[in-house]
Amino acid sequence: MGGDRDHGSHKGYALGAMVDIFSALLSGANYAPWVPPFPAYVPMPAKQPGKGIGHFFGAMRVDAFRPAAEFKRDMDDWINGFRTAATLPGHDRVLVPGDPEREMEQERKKSGIPLLPAVVEDLKQLADKLGVSWIS
Q1: 124 Cβ partners below 8 Å, 6+ apart?
Q2: How far is CA 88 from the centre of its chain?
Q3: Among candidate residues 53, 60, 8, 47, the one with its CA nearest the CA of residue 28
Q4: What percent of the chain has pLDDT over 70?
Q5: Within a 10 A sphere around the Cβ of 58, how many other Cβ atoms?
Q6: How far apart, in whole angstroms, are the C-alpha atoms of residue 133 and residue 136?
Q7: Residue 123 — φ and ψ, nearest 5°?
Q8: 15-21 contacts, C-beta under 8 A, 24 or more apart
Q9: What span, in angstroms and rounded, lies between the C-alpha atoms of 77 and 71?
Q10: Over the stretch 39-92, which tens digit does the pLDDT of each residue have?
Q11: CA of 56: how far to CAs of 38, 61, 71, 122, in Å?
Q12: What gap in Å lies between CA 33 and CA 20, rounded to an integer?
């Protein structure tokens, strides 16, 4: 959001704080630097103010704020503003949230989901154990 206060760094800080409050403090999970690390080889933080990693799922009724059709029209305009924005050298386009995920979904549908050989072996062993046919 910006590198210093004059350029809006406080906005990014506030957004990060909201995520931490909604997903960790509200659910009773660990927060801030005490969130357990994802990689198993990284040691757990010494302080554990909550339990585990929290999540937050929220929903809003757009038409409680304004007519949904107007919102959708403005949302399309917002997206178009980013997609048609000038890019930095070395970049071919500006992405909007969800673009990388939509592109990866199309790639996975076309080419499949790559699996590590160790995962494939585990799945084969599980299939054998459960008597499930394995299709390579």
Answers
A1: 134
A2: 24
A3: 53
A4: 92
A5: 5
A6: 10
A7: -65, -40
A8: 19/56
A9: 10
A10: 778 888 888 899 989 999 999 999 999 999 999 999 999 999 999 999 989 999
A11: 18, 17, 24, 32
A12: 10
For residue 23, give every residue at least 6 positions away whose Cβ sits within 8 Å of its Cβ, in sequence order, or none: 29, 54, 55, 56
- Give the domain ranges of the chain: 1-58
Q: How high is the pLDDT of residue 55?
A: 93
Place of tokens 């199309």: 106
Sequence-separated (6 or more) residues with CB below 8 Å from residue 29: 23, 35, 50, 51, 52, 53, 54
Separation CA 98–CA 114 (nearest Å): 21
What separation, in Å, do the N-terminal and C-terminal C-alpha atoms of the chain show? 46
Element (H, E) at 69: helix 68-83
Name residue, tokens 């790559």. Answer: 114
Predicted TM-score (pTM) of this structure? 0.58
Rounded Cα distance, 129 and 51, in Å: 34
